[in-house]
Amino acid sequence: MMNMNTIKKLFFLLLLLNVATANVFAAQTQISVSFDRNPVSLDESFQIIFTANDTPDNDPDFTPLEQDFEILGQSQSSNSSWINGQSSKTIQWTLNVMAKHPGSLTVPPVKFGDDVSQPASILVTQATANKAVNTDDDLFLEVEANPESLYVQSQVLYTVRLYRRVDIAQAALNEPELGDAVIEKLGDDSNYNTQINGVNYLVTERKYAIFPQKSGSVTIKPLALTAEVMVNSRPSFNSFFNSRMTKTKKVLSKSVTLDVKPAPATFTGKHWLSAEHLVLKEEWSGDNQQMRVGEPLTRTLTLLAKGTTVGQLPELNANKINDQLKTYPDQPVLQEQKKPEGLIAFREEKIAIIPSKAGFYKLPAIEIPWFNTQTQKMEIAKIPETNITALEVEGAQQAPVTPVAPPMEQQPKKVEQPAPTVVSQPQQQNTWFWVAMFLGTGWLATLVYFLTKRPAKKPVEEKSEPELRLADSVKNLKKACADNNAVAAKDALLAWGRQKSGATSLGAIAELSDARLRDEILHLNQILYGKTADQWQGKKLFQAFAENKAREKIAIKEDDKLEPLFRL
Q: Is 187 exposed, middle or buried (0-12, 13-18, 19+ CB in 10 A)?
C-alpha cells in the first residue's frame, strides 16, 4: 500500500497536469469560418473566409474543401491593434470558390498545424438557367427586395446586382430612395462570377436594409447606373494617342413596390418592435443576495435584436422600484452592427442600486413585447421578478444616532453673538465708511464706462443670426409642446436638428441626445407613426429638451455628489 506522502505527490502531479492541459487548450488559436453571402447559386463564385485571432500553429491545408468546392484563388491578410495596453491580432485567409453541386454543403474543419478551424454550412441552390435576361446585354442591373410584404418598421433586405461582361472605366450608381424610411447600407460590395444562359458575367452585389416608417403601398424608385464602357476600335486620327475609347451607357433597374402593413391589432405592447430575433438578459456586478446597506451594486440590462434599428429598442429600466433602493442609472450604450444578413441593434443600461435599509426587496419583472418577423407571431422577452437581500453592515447601528448634529446647528448662533460688540467700535465704523465711499465711486465710474461703450456691441449682435434662427426653433418647439401638437413638435425638432448638428431625421437627433430626451423623441415618433392615435402630451418632451441643453452643468454637479458610484 502507498503511504500518505506518495498519495500527496501523485495528487500534486495530477493537479499540475490538469493545469498544464488547461493552459494548452486556452492557448489554442480560435479559427472561425464565414461567407461573403449565404445562400449562393451553383453557377456563382463566392468567398470562404477563415479568421484566426492569433498566429496559428502552421499554414492551412485546404485539401479537404476540394471534395465539394472548386478553389479558384486565395489571399491572406492580417491586422494588428493595440488598445488600452492590450494587443490583438487577426489573420484572414480568403478563398474564392465555386460549389460542385447544390445542397446544404459543409465546409469541413481545416487543419492549421495543431490548430483546427470550426466547421460551417452554406446553402447552394440550383443554377438560374432560365433567367429572363437578354444575353445580348453586356451591362444590366437587377434589384430584389425581401420580403415585399411586411409590417411597418420591419426590415427589408434590398439587394442590387450589377452584371457586366465588359470593362468599365468609371461608373456612378445612385442610392435607393423611399420616403419615410430608414435606409442603411450593409457592409462592403461583393464581387463574383456567374453564368446566365451559358454567358459568363462578373457581378458586383450591394445590400441595403430598409425600414419603412409608414404603412401603405410604397415604391422604391428605379436605380440608375451611368458608366463609361471601354470599347475596342481602330485608332482614328483624333484618337492617335488613345486607341481604347469609351462610350457612356446608362441602365435602369426596375422599381419595387412594397406592401407595408400597420402593426397588427393583436400586438398588446405600448412600444411597437419587430425583429427577426431578440435576446434580453441581466447581469450583476456582485451577489444580489448579499448586498450591504449603503454599498452600491451594479445591474446591467442588455437587449440584442436582429433585423431592427437601435432607435426602435425601448428603455429597459422603466419600472419603478422600492423607495428604500436608491438607483443611479448611467447613460445607455447604443450600438449597431451592419451585417450582410441585416442590421443588429444593441442597447445596454447600467444601474447602480444602493439599499438604504436592511431587508428583502423585489425588483419588478421586465417585459419587452415584440413581433417575430420569422414566425409572424407576437412574443415577450422577459426578465422575471428579481429578489434581492440587503444586509446591515457590522457596526452600523451607531450611524443612525447622530447626537453631534444639534450642537452643529447651534454653533453658528454663538458666532453671531459677538457681532454687535465689533460693529459698535467707532474706529471700525469710520474705516468702513471710507471703504464704502471708495467702492461706490468705482462702481459709478464703471457704470459710466459701460454706458459710453454700449454702441460698440451692435456689430456683435448683427452676427448672431444663426443663434436667432436656433432660438426660433426652440421657441416653436416650446409652443408645440405646450399645445400638445405632435406634428408641429416634429417639424420644430427637425429644424433645430438641422441647424444644430446637421441631423435630418428624428432618429438621428435621438442618437445625439441623452437618454431621457432620446426616449421622449422615440415616444413622439411612435405617436406619429404608431398604430393608435394616442393623445400626446408635450410637457415631458420639452422638459427633457431643456434638461439636455443643461446636461454638462448637471453632469458636473452629479459627479461631485455621487463620485464613488463612477468608480465601479
A: middle
CA dist., res. 504 & res. 497, Å (int)? 7
Grid cell of 5 as nine digits:
506522502
Closest CA relative to residue 352, chosen from 396, 398, 301, 307? 301
Q: How many CB atoms lie within 10 A of CB 361?
A: 18
Q: Which of 184, 510, 485 is nearest to 339 (CA)?
A: 184
Nearest CA-CA partner of 323 in 355, 295, 289, 297 = 355
Alpha-carbon distance values, 534 to 212, 274, 340 (Å): 21, 20, 37
pTM assigned to the model: 0.57
- Which stretches of 319-425 are DSSP H helices? 405-416, 419-423
**Whole-number Cα distances in Å, 107 to 57, 62, 104, 407, 564:** 20, 10, 10, 80, 52
Measured between alpha carbons, how far is residue 398 from residues 76, 110, 394, 401, 402 in Å? 68, 67, 10, 6, 8
In the three-class reduction of DSSP (H, G, I as helix; E, B as strand; rest coil), residue 563 is classed as: helix
Listed residue (77, 40, 88, 400) closest to 194, CA to CA:
40
Each residue's pLDDT tens digit, 333-369: 999 999 888 999 999 999 999 998 899 999 999 999 9
Enclosing H/E stretch for 230: strand 224-232
**Contact (Cβ atoms closer than 8 angstroms) between residue 361 and residue 322:** yes
Per-residue pLDDT tens over the stretch 231-250: 765 555 555 555 567 788 88
Whether residue 316 contacts residue 366, with contact meaning beta carbons closer than 8 Å, is answered with yes
Question: Strands of 181-196's sheet, edge to edge?
Answer: 139-146, 156-164, 199-212, 181-196
Which H/E stretch holds residue 352?
A: strand 342-355
Annotate 214-241 with b (16+ C-beta within 10 A) or e (fewer).
Answer: ebeebebebbebebbbeeeeeeeeeeee
Cβ-Cβ contacts under 8 Å for 372 (sequence gap 6 or more) = 274, 275, 276, 277, 278, 378, 379
Domains of the chain: 31-125 (2.60.40), 139-261 (2.60.40), 275-395 (2.60.40), 471-567 (no CATH)
Tell me how far the alpha carbon of residue 189 is from its chain's centroid. Answer: 22
CA distance 426 to 429: 5
Q: How confident is the model at residue 41 (pLDDT cuts 50, 70, 90)?
A: confident
Question: Which set of grid coordinates corresponds to residue 191?
Answer: 464581387
